[in-house]
Each structure stands twice: as structure tokens, then as C-alpha cells.
Amino acid sequence: MSTISASEAPHLQQIDLTKLSLQQLTLLKQQLDKELNVFQDSLQTLKIAQSKFQESGFCLDKVTPEAKVDVGSSLGMRRFIYLLGILLAKSKLCWLIGVI
Fold first, then answer.
1. Coiled coil where (predicted)?
2. What pLDDT, on a 0 to 100 scale, did the predictor assign at position 39?
3. Which residues of the chain have pLDDT under 70?
């Protein structure tokens, strides 16, 4: 028998899964599957963002005062939102947010 503790969150209610009908259990499983997919997608997105962040750190470490910097680099964030990065100095990066 599965139970959910309500001691940490008093607004939640405890449900005895053995008393649910087959249809209710099926709906519960479908909802849990959807939520799990959202969490998995979010985790994948976070891993991609982490990788890009680490890569940007490696690239920034290679910038020296003598290095030529492309000030027109843009980063696509979403379908219509872009960031334009301008490197002012090795320790100063200016981001301009725009919508296309």
C-alpha cells in the first residue's frame, strides 16, 4: 500500500490507492507520466544550459587584451528573443535583449 505523508504539507490529502477504481488509477498514472515528462524535459534543458554556460566560460578564459573580439555575436534564446553580446573587457560583458 502506498501512502503520501501530509506532515510536511498540510494542504495535501492522503489517498489510499487500494480504494481507487481502475479508471482513477489509469488517470493518476497518465498524470504522473505527464509530470515525469515535464521534469525530464526540464532536466535536459538545464543540462544543455549548463553545457553552454561552461563552454562560454572556457571561451571567455581565452580572451586576452590582444585578442580580437567579434562584438556582433548573438544568442537565440527562444523563437523570437535574441541576446546580443558585446565584450567590453574580459571581465565585462554587455547583453542587449531584443525581440524579432
1. 22-49
2. 95
3. 1-10, 63-100
Q: In the structure grid, which three cell numbers stand for residue 100, read together?
A: 524579432
**100 and 82 in contact (C-beta within 8 Å)?**
yes
Burial of 7 (0-12, 13-18, 19+ CB in 10 A): exposed
One DSSP character per residue, 32-57 reads HHHHHHHHHHHHHHHHHHHHHHHHHH
Round to whole Å and give the CA distance between 8 and 27.
25
Q: List the grid coordinates of 94.
A: 554587455
**Can you give the pLDDT at residue 58?**
76
The amino acid present at 46, given as its one-letter code, is: L
Residue 32 CA to residue 45 CA, distance in Å, equals: 20
Q: How far is CA 18 from CA 31, 33, 66, 70, in A?
A: 18, 19, 70, 63
